[in-house]
């Protein structure tokens, strides 16, 4: 798949506003500030396709990008510590849950976690849910550039070991948007999901 061809499609406040539920979608999910939007930009080689920010909670809508007529990438709102009013937070956490539960074209979930804070409760809940729904999961340990190579290898092995407990199709790789670390691996996994 040529990921550079990605173009912005829509920003949806809820699943009713999404493009027709057909073809294949791969969604990027994870805690606020984990690096989801940055990873999408790295994958598509476009600096400002998805909006990134130092402020957690930047992505509050379900942003959709088209790769071709029947393949899409999805940037989901983050969960966790977003500094937004509770009412707003509840609204978009609800649309996130709804998207994950109802979207038929969702064929694979990328779960991004800051390598310095892996496998928080909500990450584990999300992975468990995906496995229960027979959805393949690619866990990306993001901002790998923040750790020395020995330290990041150690965490990679620990998270791979812990991921066996989910008993599902869960792959774990290191990733960095800063130095493109892990980009080839991400493309390989996504290519197989989009091929189906
Ligand atoms: P929300 O939309 O708020 O849920 O956040 P997000 O998961 O989309 O995170 P985003 O991509 O906006 O990145 C958050 C912050 O982390 C920004 O300041 C990025 O520049 C930084 N960041 C993202 N990826 C990397 C990385 O690989 N390395 C480093 N050093 N910083 C990164
Ligand atoms: Mg974002």
Automatic annotation (TrEMBL):
One GO biological process term is: division septum assembly
Key words of the record? Cell cycle, Cell division, GTP-binding, Magnesium, Metal-binding, Nucleotide-binding, Septation
Q: Which cofactor does it need?
A: Mg(2+)
From what superkingdom does this record's organism come?
A: Bacteria
Q: Does the record's keyword annotation contain Transcription?
A: no
InterPro entries linked: G_ENGB_dom, GTP-bd, GTP-bd_ribosome_bio_YsxC, P-loop_NTPase
Q: Which CDD domains match?
A: YihA_EngB
Q: Which SUPFAM superfamilies match?
A: P-loop containing nucleoside triphosphate hydrolases
- Gene Ontology CC annotations of this record: cytosol
Q: Which residues form the EngB-type G domain?
A: 22-196
In terms of PROSITE patterns, this protein maps to:
G_ENGB
What GO molecular-function term can you cite, just one?
GTP binding
Q: What function does this protein fulfil?
A: Necessary for normal cell division and for the maintenance of normal septation.
The similarity annotation says:
Belongs to the TRAFAC class TrmE-Era-EngA-EngB-Septin-like GTPase superfamily. EngB GTPase family.
Do you know which NCBIfam families this protein is assigned to?
Answer: GTPase_YsxC
| Name the record gives this protein | Probable GTP-binding protein EngB
Source organism of the structure:
Rheinheimera salexigens
């Amino acid at each position: 798949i040529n990921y550079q061809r990605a173009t912005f499609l829509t920003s949806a406040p809820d699943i009713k506003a999404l493009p027709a539920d057909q073809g294949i979608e791969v969604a990027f999910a994870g805690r606020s500030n984990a690096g989801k939007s940055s990873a999408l930009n790295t994958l598509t080689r476009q600096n400002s396709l998805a909006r990134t920010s130092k402020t957690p909670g930047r992505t509050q809508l379900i942003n959709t990008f088209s790769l071709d007529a029947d393949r899409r990438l999805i940037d989901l709102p983050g969960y966790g510590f977003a500094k937004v009013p509770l009412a707003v937070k509840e609204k978009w956490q609800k649309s996130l849950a709804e998207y994950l539960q109802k979207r038929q074209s969702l064929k694979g979930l990328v779960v991004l976690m800051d390598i310095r804070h892996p496998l928080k409760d909500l990450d584990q809940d999300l992975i468990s849910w995906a496995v229960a729904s027979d959805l393949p999961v690619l866990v990306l340990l993001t901002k790998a550039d923040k750790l020395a190579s020995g330290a990041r290898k150690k965490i990679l092995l620990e998270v791979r070991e812990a991921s066996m407990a989910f008993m599902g199709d869960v792959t774990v790789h290191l990733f960095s948007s800063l130095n493109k670390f892990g980009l080839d691996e991400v493309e390989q996994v996504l290519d197989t999901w989009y091929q189906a």
